[in-house]
Amino acid sequence: MLGAGSRRGLVAALVVAAATACIVAVMLVLPAARTDPYTRQTMDLHGSAENGARLFMINCAGCHGIAAQGLVGPNLHGVSIRKNQRQLIQQVVSGRTPPMPRFQPEPQAMADLLAYLNSLV
Ligand code: HEC
Questions:
Q1: Distance from residue 59's CA to the centre of ligand 1 (Å)
Q2: Which residues contact 5 (CB under 8 A, 6 or more apart)?
Q3: Which of 31, 58, 90, 114 is the most buried (most CB within 10 A)?
Q4: For ligand 1, atom 10, which residue shows the shortest CA distance?
């Protein structure tokens, strides 16, 4: 039989082991969840602001204005200072802020749009 003291020691050791396992799981899962493969692929590509501007005219200017000066949607000048690259991609692909729709550009088109947004200082 184990004494009360060593049983408490065993429980403490199990709690520590479970907490450690949780921390390791969170450390492994969180970065992967924050940077999904699409976002990672987009950020690895070199975007063309010129192509991005063309895509913007077709898809975005109706709401954000032809010079991104704001209309139904907000002015986008300086947006890359307010939001990081991952947040900008999420803004375009998530559809989480209606009435802005959810877009599904190919990674290269998204990289081009991102380059355009980054050029709006
Ligand atoms: C139907 C109108 C509409 C269209 C089309 C649209 N947007 Fe938006 N957009 C909005 C609105 C409204 C918001 C503000 C959402 C909020 O934060 O509540 C917004 C917000 C944003 C933001 C964040 C601005 C900030 O200050 O945080 C970015 C970046 C953006 N849009 C980019 C785009 C791009 C790029 C496209 C084209 C691919 C696009 N939008 C198309 C309406 C639109």
A1: 10
A2: none
A3: 114
A4: 73
Using an 8 Å Cβ cutoff, are 77 and 65 in contact? no
- How much is the pTM? 0.80
3-state secondary structure of 99: coil
Q: How many CB atoms lie within 10 A of CB 84?
A: 10
Is the pLDDT confidence value at 44 over 90? yes
Angle at CA 83, nearest 5°, toward 80 and 88? 80
**What CATH number should be reported for the domain whose range is 37-119?**
1.10.760.10
Selection from 111, 91, 117 nearest residue 40 by Cα = 111
